[in-house]
Amino acid sequence: MRERLVVSDYSEFRLLNFEYLNSSMLYTILF
Question: What is the pLDDT of residue 1?
């Protein structure tokens, strides 16, 4: 149970990180 929670937290973190990187790259390209 605990491991599963950690894994889901980690994947959510990676998703957020990926979105952040994507938006900053887009921002850099556009401006």
Answer: 55
Domain that holds residue 15: 1-31
Structure tokens at 2: 């605990």
For the record, the structure tokens of 13 come out as 């973190």
pLDDT digits (tens, 9 = 90+) for 1-31: 567 767 777 778 887 788 888 888 777 876 6
Interior CA angle at 28 toward 10 and 30, to 5°? Answer: 125
When divided into structural domains, the chain yields a total of 1
Q: Which two tokens stand for residue 17?
A: 């990180």
